[in-house]
Amino acid sequence: MNSRQRRGVILLVLSVLCALAAFGGVLVVIGDVNSKVGAEVVAYRVKSDIAPYSTLTAGQFEQVTVPKRWLSDSAVTDLGALRDKMALTALKKGSLLQSDMFVDKPKLQAGEQEIAIMIDASTGVAGKITPGAKVNIIGTYKGKKQTDPDLSVVMVANARVINVGKLTPLEKDSDKKNATEAVPITFALTTKDTQRVAYAESFAVHVRLALVAPGTESTPNPNDHFYTLEGDR
Fold it and tell me: How many CB atoms neighbour CB 147 within 10 A?
């Protein structure tokens, strides 16, 4: 073997050693990253913005993998947790789904039925009424005759809200006078109270909601169910 061949062999051996060293370095880096990051687990990310109090479905989320050590204890790893749930607040696109982002949907109790009506957003909701809240439903009426006083009536006391819909623009020919936007609100009521609410929506000049403080009952005295300006003088 001449000197040129010996140099070739030496360079070949050095190349192989360098390759092995580089490969070993890569393995060390990968091992170090794995030791720091750890195993990955499945989580779920919001596909697009979700409005508050909306019913949640699996199709609204996409699966992602996240290092387990970076995932909070409240992160949802099984979409079965969304069964009969609704968003508690607005969920933003790209947010990881957490168990504190949703709550159980309010359900009807024995003897109750649902009724939904449109409420003027500016005078009847103001963004403070949420599912589970209790409200007094008040209708205001014009006197039947010119000489009759206008009347305000508590149609239903402590009505339980089970759903608040999205803000909806009203058409120009809507019977909601002077209102430009309204919110559909669903109540759980007895048959009689359902009839009272339906009557108020059909014949009252306005239907307004008065929020009842959580944990309290606000049942008006019999004399307070009806109000006229003349009677208050």
Answer: 6
Structural tokens at position 42: 């499945």
Give the CA distances from residue 103 to residues 57, 83, 93, 120, 162, in Å, rounded to whole numbers and listed in that order: 13, 10, 19, 26, 12
Q: Which of 22-36, 168-182, 188-202 has the highest mean pLDDT?
A: 188-202
pLDDT tops 60 at residue 10: yes
The pLDDT-based confidence of 8 (bands split at 50, 70, 90) is low
Coil, helix or strand at residue 66: strand
Q: What is the dihedral angle through the alpha carbons of 8, 9, 13, 15, rounded to the nearest 10 degrees?
A: 20
pLDDT higher at 177 or 63: 63
Mapping DSSP to helix (H, G, I), strand (E, B) and coil, where does residue 75 land?
strand
For the record, the structure tokens of 220 come out as 């008006």
Query: Of the given ranges (33-37, 52-56, 59-63), which has the lowest mean pLDDT?
Result: 33-37
Structural element, H or E, at residue 56: none
- If one counts every other C-beta atom within 10 angstroms of the C-beta of residue 37, the result is 13
Spell out the domains of the chain, with CATH numbers in brackets: 40-102 (3.90.1210.10), 113-232 (no CATH)
The token pair at 85 is 């749930």
Q: How far apart are alpha carbons 227 and 153 in whole angstroms?
A: 6
- Token representation of residue 133: 């809240």
Place of tokens 């979409």: 79
Which of 155, 164, 162 minimizes the C-alpha distance to 128? 164
Could you tell me where the DSSP H helices lie in 1-132? 3-37, 121-124
CA distance 27 to 53: 49
The two three-digit tokens of residue 141, written as one number: 């009426």
